[in-house]
Amino acid sequence: MEDKLLKSVLKAQRNEITEHHVYRRLAGRTKDEHNRKILEKIAGDEMRHHKFWKSITKKTVEPNRFQLHLYYFVSVVFGLLFGLKLMEKGEGLAIDFYKKLTKKYPEVKKIVLDEQRHEKQVLDMISEQKLEYASSIVLGLNDALVELTGALAGLTLALQNSNIIAISGVIIGFAASLSMAASEYLSSKEDHEAHLGVKTPLKSALFTGTAYIITVILLVIPFFLFSNVFTALAVMLGVAIFIIAAYTIYITVAKSQRFWPRFIEMALISLTVAAISFGVGWMIRILFGIDV
What we know:
The longest helix has 32 residues, at 162-193. It is built from 11 helices and no strands. The chain is 84% helix and 0% strand. The chain has helices at 3-29, 33-57, 65-78, 80-100, 108-122, 129-132, 134-159, 162-193, 201-225, 229-254, 259-288.
């Protein structure tokens, strides 16, 4: 085997043993029996793949400790399905490499099928609370981003006092978060009573309210940090874009969706509302002669 090919096969061998350990560790901490069996099955597949490559290279490789700890950490913090989907995205490149070796090693076809099954069938079977309540989180995030970016942009030009804007934003945001949580509670309660959903009303309300208030805090902080209101506004808009990007990455990875269409849609809505509100704030300042 030529050196370049050997290097690539050793990399594949190391990836398989690394993923075996990730799946095995996650299976050990998973309480749900259904999910644990899935993870143990995938771990067994990855070990079998590793042994196949080892039979070709005749070499022993250690797992990539950094990747092992990274994927485990991400799965624990951001959710099991998110971590596994993220890891499976990396396997997409491995599948392309494996397909090139099928002529030389026909057994690789079975590995390719296993990897495709992991992503398209097995991982889709994993149920997880964090994704079941994703719609509640989206509701809190979307409303907070749209309402607060608009409100803070309007207040910036109308008041032009960072402390007053910040305090006003906190009051508006806190009241709105309670209102949104209450609305989500009532909506989820109706669905729950009509057997239209599996989400419990209280948890739905908590997810919505928490997502809202966290977003409010992040958007208001720049007005406490910068005395120049326009600098604070620019930083606030940057924070809003960051929040949109972070959540879009999470939901598109977990649900196997495209990033850019969803990100652009959310960003355009928030920025458009902010621009309109900024204009309204300017008109109010002129019409009423506000000078704070």
